[in-house]
From TrEMBL:
Organism: Paenibacillus arenilitoris
GO cellular component terms listed in the entry, alphabetical order: cytoplasm
InterPro entries, alphabetized: ACT-like_dom_sf, ACT_dom, Chor_mutase/pphenate_deHydtase, Preph_deHydtase, Preph_deHydtase_CS
Gene, per the UniProt record: pheA
Keyword Amino-acid biosynthesis part of the UniProt annotation: yes
The name this protein goes by in its record: Prephenate dehydratase
Prephenate dehydratase domain ranges (all copies): 2-190
Enzyme class (EC, first level): lyase
Length: 290
């Protein structure tokens, strides 16, 4: 049986994790903080950690990318995409207006993960412009806080699962700014993931450019371009060592053992770039086919 670290029960991560591992017996280790999710596998307690890395509306989750790159050395073993459906959660009985509808003015604060708050910006602007927002470590944690503070004017943004677990009501459902709101999750850990197969494989690398080398990024990209290797994502993040120094996180639509890719990487190293392989893994773009 695999031991797997993930954010708390009822979080979007937890739903996504249970989808990838459905039908399998898993010893779930739920952690309040994403740092503890990473450290559980880094310290050998868990076999894998599950990490949300990118979202349709909010883009990259920088904190999680930085943990992956700077704080741990855990290879990526799979990626999959899962819908993030957010709901406004609270106690309907505390929020009734005279005609039995919801009186949003009675909600004084909305608690949730900052990424979930950002996904619901238009809804909050329209219905709750007066309410404060408080970022917490996961959507499930926000629901837990709302559950533990009756009568405090609190509402949370989170999943239907979290609302049901906490015995709270869904005040408004599917409140994200766009319907097609998906999150890309990574499975990280020492052992390859083999339970499900995908025709599509990706390789993720981190490229640090040599200093004072004009056109270095152009040369990096051309090593892929002339071999007709498709890149699905390129993102710069600070190295944290010196202001203005960046590394490039690149997702390549190809397995590392495909003939062309090692030679492209060699070419990039030959111009003085440092390349770190973050993983070569199956990719599941359609959760319904997973
Ligand atoms: O808080 C959660 O439910 C999480 O799983 C975390 C997280 C994220 O970090 O992006 C994952 C997906 C959601 O869209 C919002 C938050």
């Amino acid at each position: 049986m695999k031991t797997i670290a993930v954010l708390p029960a009822g979080s979007v991560s937890d739903e996504a994790a249970k989808h990838l591992f459905r039908g399998e017996e898993v010893d779930w280790k739920h952690h309040r903080l994403i740092s503890d999710v990473f450290l559980s596998t880094a310290s050998g307690v868990s076999d894998y950690s599950i990490v949300p890395i990118e979202n349709t509306i909010e883009g990259s989750v920088s904190l999680h990318m930085d943990w992956l790159v700077h704080e741990v050395d855990l290879p990526i073993q799979a990626e999959w995409v899962y819908p993030s459906i957010q709901n406004l959660i609270g106690r309907a009985s505390e929020l009734k207006d005279a005609s039995g509808g919801i009186d949003y003015s009675l909600i004084t604060k909305v608690v949730s993960h900052p990424v979930a708050i950002a996904q619901c910006y238009q809804f909050l602007r329209k219905h709750l412009p007066h309410a404060a927002t408080e970022p917490v470590s996961s959507t499930a944690e926000g629901v837990r806080i709302a559950q533990n503070n009756p009568g405090a004017g609190l509402a949370a943004i989170g999943t239907m699962t979290a609302a049901a677990n906490a015995g709270l009501d869904v005040i408004a459902s599917a409140i994200t700014d766009h319907d097609n709101n998906y999150t890309r999750f990574l499975l990280v850990g020492p052992a390859p993931y083999t339970a499900r197969q995908s025709d599509s494989r990706k390789t993720s690398i981190l490229v640090t450019l040599p200093e004072d080398y004009p056109g270095a990024l152009h040369q990096v990209l051309s090593a892929f371009a002339w071999r007709k290797i498709n890149l699905s994502r390129i993102e710069s993040r600070p190295t944290k060592k010196k202001l203005g120094n960046y590394y490039f996180y690149i997702d390549i639509d190809m397995a590392l053992d495909t003939v062309l890719l090692p030679s492209a990487i060699q070419e990039i190293e030959a111009i003085g770039c440092h390349v770190r392989i973050l993983g070569s893994y199956p990719s599941f773009a359609d959760y319904k086919k997973l």
